Request: fold
Amino acid sequence: MTTEARPYPFPETAQLELAPEYGRYRRAAGLGRLEMPYGGVAWLATRLADVKLVLSDPRFSRAAAVGADAPRTMPMMETTPSILNLDPPEHTRVRRVVARAFTVRRVELLRPRIQQVVDGLLDRMIDRGPEADLVTDFSLPLAVTAISELLGVPEDQRSEFHEWSHRATAIKDVSIEDIMAAQQSLAAFFSELAAKRREQPTEDLIGLLVSARDVEERLSDEELVQLGIALLAAGHETTANQLSGYVFTLLTQPGLWQRLLADPGLVPRAVEELARITPLGVVTFGRIAREDLEVGGTLVRAGESVVCQIAAANRDESVFEGAEAVDFDREANPHISFGHGLHHCLGAPLARVELQTGLASVLRRLPGLRLATPAAQVPFKANHLLRGPRSLPVTW
Reply:
């Protein structure tokens, strides 16, 4: 593969298709080379081994991009340290504050409540039926409710932060001023919630963060706010997109839907396979090399940036047999849809419970579910970091 830089992002692909450029880079020798929209040129890693190396090797730094005009997809430079761009030991300290709230064991205790939320949403859908928008009527409110209850966001304030987080992750067609305004609104929103916890301490996750700031002094004021924003935004956007995308895939490949109807016990394995095959968005955060090192046969010089495409790595033919197909019988499935290394998604256990519970319940209660519009007409998000159906009209 030539090392001549290619403009990025690649042209938009239809719905959940992955741009063919990623596959061509993955099957070629060495790393790809991209001219990023902002900040210059970056290397592109698309093979599973290369992506895992970049995401886990301490010789690559996220913090080095903060305050620098580093290669990136978004127009805004990263100027504020957060859990998403810290390196150890700062990252370890901040992550440890909330890590115990997201252990598999703790999250499993939430499964009955998540089932309650799922049942309530489906009850309302069915009562209003026989048509619905699975995004606005199910996937999004499920994800918003789950993270809001864990954090302690009052019910009458939950509709606000989704719109702000959606605008804050735009990469085109939204002005920098609007992106900044959305980010500032999120910061003010969480600061207000934290201030209320100082007046009236609680046992929820926001209360835990305030205690870590005020009593234990493990967080700064800025870290408190940025951690809260990350949990709010990432805790609902990705899961809502995933669940809607999974159902779209199942309804456009009826054999898969029928397989799960016949064997509901396959749902946990199906969630892992659908996570592997479903692309969530464009490449975002680069890692800056601290020293010269080789990645996938390419010499990356100190100071150069490498960006990773996780969805492409999840289709690495050298790791996944029949990588482009959805296979619920896949014995080994080492996908990295929830990340890898120290920045592995903190909320992955919660996301899995929501996805498993949501999908299993839709299958059980709406076995005759089908698209209410031709598949090609289902609208998908564009010009944002995250992909997924903008709406998903269904009927039963």
In short: The longest helix spans residues 221-252. The mean pLDDT is 91. The longest strand covers residues 41-45. Residues 6-395 form a domain with the Cytochrome p450 fold (CATH 1.10.630.10).
